[in-house]
Design brief:
The structure is a homodimer. Chain A is an all-alpha fold. Chain A is 66% helix and 0% strand. The longest helix of chain A is centred in the first third of the chain and has 23 residues. The first copy, chain A, binds a DNA duplex through helix 4.
Amino acid sequence: MHPSLALYAGWVDWCNPWILLATKVNRTPPRQTRDAEATKAKILDAAEEEFAKFGFNGAKTEAIAAKTGVTKAMIYYHFGSKEELYKAVIQRPAEDFVNAFGDLELETMPPEEAVKTVIKVAIAHEISHPHYGRVLLHEAMQNQGQYFKLTGWVNPINRVIAVIERGIQAGIFRPVDPWLAVNHTMGICTFYFNAQANMRNVQPEFEWFTPEAIERFTESAIAMVLAGLKA
Amino acid sequence: MHPSLALYAGWVDWCNPWILLATKVNRTPPRQTRDAEATKAKILDAAEEEFAKFGFNGAKTEAIAAKTGVTKAMIYYHFGSKEELYKAVIQRPAEDFVNAFGDLELETMPPEEAVKTVIKVAIAHEISHPHYGRVLLHEAMQNQGQYFKLTGWVNPINRVIAVIERGIQAGIFRPVDPWLAVNHTMGICTFYFNAQANMRNVQPEFEWFTPEAIERFTESAIAMVLAGLKA
DNA sequence: AAGCTAACTAACAAGTTAGTCAGTAAAAGA
DNA sequence: TCTTTTACTGACTAACTTGTTAGTTAGCTT
């Protein structure tokens, strides 16, 4: 396993959504009676879940507060407004990802291995931040991506484009459109998680979150993308 | 062009979003002073746009009414409730698609050609119903897909699975997991449209909706999926 | 132990939103 | 032409939502 995947070490064990909801990324120190940082983290967690479901407009501050155990006034005390809370929510996991991604030495890897690694990290991030992908989709659909640009996602995506361009120049990849290839790859990596509730109606028996299922999904995603790229 | 694509005849000309918003599928007869069917259609159009942006919970009936030129009370007169309106919105383009898909003779086509056709029809549907895909995503994210099962999408998806299974048995396709392959394909076909507002921040110059861009996207999607499937 | 301040609550004000209803006017029918 | 039905409006209510504020308490400092 590449070192940067260490951030998500044990992610396969987190696949069960109930476990996921309980564990999350371990940001919260042991709870004391009055702990501003812990309270802020709890609000962010609850807000991430609420925004993932309803987006910025649809989310209710009251519902967020209800999940945390503190009152709604705390949102305004700690974050100032619903909008500032939203900005904080959309930026927090992005920082995790951008940092982990910054550690990847994609530029020195063989293109095939680089693409493989990117897909693994992307899926690991979906698993360890099970609500975040949906927050970003709502962002695109209802805020025209105006807050997306604050997150720092642009740089990692451009690095993946560069990897594909390098692969094409080396004759390892076919002369595909790198931009479209990146879009396809992101589509593959995210649809499984975002559209799941609909797709469950088609295959009610399918297990989505067992470690084996995630493993199969990841391998299958890598296989399709690499087949599509390789010369 | 396959006959079932006739439903979307001229779709390449509709790619510009402004043209799209103006044309839509031509359901509305020439407007009279009082025309219940025309009013219902206008409400459905406006609601589709609003639900695409905010989902069921986030959408405001007042905003829907404002787009139509009739009062909010008309929504309740013609549809009874916000929920019934939503059901109507989610079912209308599904009927178009399921009908068009029903006309496809996938079972008698060579598997490769069948997959190619499915992708073309799916993308054509996104183009001719530019808001609908996002309505379905909101449905998954905030309603757990409870209304999705009313739409009849399940059957077309199962037919695509069958096509892939047939291709595998014929030795034309690799022994992939057909279910995951369908998920990947849907991811590729939908991400380009649903996440666009975010992706515009990465490539601000990219043209998404020119006929040429849609053509390139379609070819690129077909190439990746077929490369991923072919033995 | 007394005093201070950061963290927190309960209750409320101001503005929104789903849904209703009494009434009006355009058509269609007699 | 008069009546009935259908499409539609404006004004309303009850419930909900964001954000505020006055006051309370935990825990730290001295």
